[in-house]
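Entry 14. Ran structure prediction on the chain below.
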Amino acid sequence: MEIDKIINNLVKECSGKRAEIIDNFLKMFVASRIDWFKEKPERMRRIKLIEERSENGLKTTYRIEMMSGAKKQSNHTKA
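Output, C-alpha cells:
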C-alpha cells in the first residue's frame, strides 16, 4: 500500500512540474516577441505547442509553431 502512495505522489509532482514547464515556456515565447504580438493580437490564437517524445518515452521535447491564418475568400465570383 505504501508503494502505491509513493507512486501517486511522484506522478502528481511530475504532472504539476510538466504544467509549470509548459506555462513558463509559452510565457517566455510570448515575452520574447511581445512587439510582434502587440502588432496583431490575433496571432496569440495561432500558437501551437508541439510535444514530441522519444521512442523510449524518457525524453520530451517541446517546440512552438504558428498555425497559418485563415485564408481570405475572394470577393470576386466567376460569371
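The helical segments are 2-32, 34-39. Will compare against last week's run tomorrow.
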